[in-house]
Amino acid sequence: MPTVLRRAALIAGTVSLALPASALSRPVRALVILPPGEGSTITLAAYAHNQATGSCSDLGAHVCDQLRMYENWRFRDGALHATPSAVPDPSSAEAPEAGVEIVRDSFGVPHVFATGPGESAIQRRIAYGIGYAQAQERLFQMEILRRAAEGQLSALLGQPYLEMDLITTRDSEAAAERRRQLAELSPSDRVALDSYVAGINAVIRRDTSDPSLMPAGFQLLQDLPIRPWTADDTVAIISLEVSNIAQSSGNGLGYAGLARLLSRRYGASRAVSILDDVQFTHDPQAPVTVPSGQAARFTSAGHRYDFIHYTRADTARLLGQVLPDVLAAHQGMLTGQRAVKQAIDTLGLPTFGSNAWALSPRRTTTGGALLWGAPQVGYYAPEILDELEVEGGRFHLHGVSVPGGGPGVVIGYTPHTAWSITTSQDDQVATYVDRIRRHGQGYEYRWRGSWHPVGQRTVTFRIRKETASLPVTGQLPVPSYTSHTTTFYRTYHGPRRHPIPCTVVYLDAAAGRAYCRVRDFWNTELQTGKALVAINQATDLAQFRAAVHKNVAGFNFVYADDRGNIAYWHAGRIPLWPRGADPRLPLPGSGRYDWRGYLPARLWPSVVDPAQGFIASWNNKPQASWDDSGDGTLWGAFQRSRQLMNMLRGHRRFSQRSLWQMARRVGELDLEQTLGFKRFLTQLPSHFRLSTIERAAVRQIARWDGTAFYPAGAQRGSDGRLTGLVRSPGFAILGTWFSNLENQVAERIFGPVLGRRQPAAEVQFYTRDPLTTSPQFEFFDDYDAFVYNVMTGHAHGARYLGRLSPLAISREALDQAISELRSAQGPRPAGWHAPMPIISFQSLDVAGVPSIPWENRGTWGQAIALPRAR
User: Fold this and answer.
1) Which of the four, 152, 163, 738, 739, has the lowest number of CB atoms within 10 Å?
2) Rounded-to-integer distance, Cα 710 and Cα 727, Å
3) d(CA 432, CA 253)
4) C-alpha torsion sign, points 570, 574, 576, 579
């Protein structure tokens, strides 16, 4: 059992490697926030108390203690601490193992200190302390995560989660495959991982011996005894996280289905032109992170890439091979994705997104570099990210990690470096169409001139008969179970010597065809975990770069250090496609279109110290010469990073305060207005004779600066209280207009093919991947960008507007919007208001957290001021 310690009672006879004197004299200044709070284990007693009072605070001291701070853009001090005694206002301190002390501050954040006779001992103890601290506050969340990663949710929560279990099991590595990743770890890394697991299991044993400490979720669901944690559980969670956050492609079936329907009406050549407009590539207007034609300490801007090379004739040739069953394959895959998306939203699994920017010392008032990091991974209680500080040996850092995902900090800072990550949006998923034939009790597929056995495995799922919901709201009866057995199939694709599994998502035995999808980082996800551990220990630019080059997942890394450097890397495995392969479509599985290898890390887009003095990333294109991957990228002119880049250019010098104030300003602005759609309304009076109500509506748009979301976009009554509405009528008018505009643009070309009632939704049926679709006001999709290109004259594949001009279409959409708003809210545009969108925290435990007004911001925030450059 852990022992509560006094500060002076640290274990004698050990070597304490705390922060170096240089770091103490030149401290990093950090402001941080984690909504809605660090999280506390919600015990059965706390749950009962909450049910009686309804107060969130009764669930635990740190379940929602940062919620109002987050809502109102307040931060906490995130200073690094050299010793346990330096942690201010500690709420607890304990030593769960010799050489390990965990001090929790007043917000419940654990500060893990380790000492020992050498680096290996310290690293082992740090890993133990991280595992112990995470399990103390997030054990039930970790249970949900490992079940989600291993396809075992329906055994706990019932039939509604079977579809997710089926797809996760189909598309993920089996336990035996994950063990191969573990076998490749170095001895020291394996010892650290085993120590991390031991720390988690120490808490499981503690809770088992004293159920008053146990998370209520286990008891209410009768999920007992708690299964011991294993290293395989952690590898499975890492694989799940990498797939959910880094994977932003793989919709080849959807685009192929849309293109086939278009080709039947308009012919293959015109269908390809329309596809090129809808899923645009090589848009010269797209904002980029690596500046073109600009001096830098290092830049990849001059490099010309050729890892994707196809012509419109190649696309037409591939489209000619798309058969009618692609529509059934897409429908089947989409049904599964929707079920998984619903489960992800319920379970608190991360989604892709995030923004980050760094400023060099000459653009700051502090004399040192500044960094802002804001991962956008969804709103949950507790968050998918877990805050902690780690001190000992080579580890001196503060940031966020993933509960159950291993002893590493994903985003954070040290005395010398600070970094954040965003999703890269590269296409790391390919879709193939294989010829198959029956062979014995299974199948064979044709690859590289010969027949090969289709891999197959039969899995039986245990399903709880009673359906449980999250949050858990009462004890369920004693579980009873049923079972479901299914067989999964795999073919293999990729480099000839090292093909990897391509999981079959649709198999038509009668037609002799199978559709499969393959991730190029298959069974290597642990490499990203190892890269993060190396990043945690890096003290300068060279060490950080070397660590980033080990990564396999599709991430952008934004970096700053205490020498005044800022840097960026667009990282992850990039397939080298053969000429003629258009990865937007399903590719023939013969082997002709398999990728040949991977782009060397030294050629990844990157920049160090650009002359403009800043680096910014918000899931945008890395550099102008980079190849758009097709169904993985949303990199056109209508891209949200343009907004923050314009702000960075327009503000000469930043303080730490103005760093996060810019984030607040970005977070309250409506993207549709600020990124270019407003002009299609404000230009109407110069081209048309408008009615009185049309002029009044346009005036509201003209007066509106795009401020829509909390804080300054919120309407308040005379008593100062929030009304629940957006203050400006412009938001209601533009939003309703845009919805109608989407249908107007789709009606003439797509309506005759897909249906005229809601043609925009019909297009998005094929172009939207539910697993990579962000909340409505947080991002955009490729159809929104297509509408922008149509309105600005950059989409040429068809006469999308018929004989009408963009402004004429705009007026038609405005009149429809006016009709809807007048019917609902009366004849005065000045009185039209939209409800304020809200952030709802999905509870992953036993009770809920209050909602707050919408802000387009990160679900962790760090504003880091590094010391004056040396």
Assistant:
1) 739
2) 10
3) 9
4) negative
Token look-up 């336990």 returns: 175
Type of residue at 834 = A
Whole-number pLDDT of residue 522: 93
Query: What's 839's DSSP letter?
Result: E
Cα 771 to Cα 779: distance, rounded to the nearest angstrom: 14
Cα(752)–Cα(765) distance, rounded to whole angstroms?
16
**Residue 348 has what pLDDT?**
61
According to the model, what pLDDT value does residue 774 have? 66
Rounded Cα distance between 152 and 460, Å, is 11
Query: In this predicted model, what pLDDT tens digit does every residue of 134-159 receive, in sequence order?
Result: 999 999 999 999 999 999 999 999 99
Q: Which residue has the tokens 């991390």?
A: 196
Phi and psi at residue 104, to the nearest 5°:
-100, 135
Quick one: tokens of 780?
């955009």
Cα–Cα distance measured from residue 196 to residue 199, given in angstroms and rounded to the nearest whole number: 5
According to DSSP, the β-strands at 386-392 and 110-114 are parallel
Q: How far apart are CA 606 and CA 602, in angstroms?
A: 9
Instruction: Give the residue among 841, 845, 843 at the shortest CA–CA distance from 41.
Output: 845
For 595-662, the DSSP string reads ---B--GGGS-EEEEETTSEEEESS-BS-TTSPP-STT---SSS-THHHHHHHHHH-S-B-HHHHHHH
- Alpha helices per DSSP H over 221-251: 231-246
Q: Which tens digit of pLDDT belongs to each residue from 154-207?
A: 999 999 999 999 999 999 999 999 999 999 999 999 999 999 999 999 999 999
Preceding peptide of 36 cis, ω within 30°: yes
Q: What is the DSSP letter of 675?
A: I
- Strand-strand pairing, 386-392 and 395-401: antiparallel
Give 69's DSSP letter. H
pLDDT at 518: 94
Q: How far apart are CA 661 and CA 211, in angstroms?
A: 45
pTM for the predicted model, two decimal places: 0.94
Q: Which portions of the chain are predicted below pLDDT 50?
A: 1-18, 21-22
Q: Which residue has the tokens 């013969």?
A: 590
Backbone angles phi, psi at 305, to 5 degrees: -100, 150
Burial of 438 (0-12, 13-18, 19+ CB in 10 A): exposed
Listed in sequence order, the residues at least 6 apart from 429 whose beta carbon sits closer than 8 Å to its beta carbon are 247, 249, 250, 517, 518, 519, 520, 632
Nearest in space to 80 (alpha carbons), one of 23, 5, 134: 23
What contacts 293, CB < 8 A, 6 or more positions away?
A: 301
Alpha carbon 449 to chain centroid, angstroms: 40
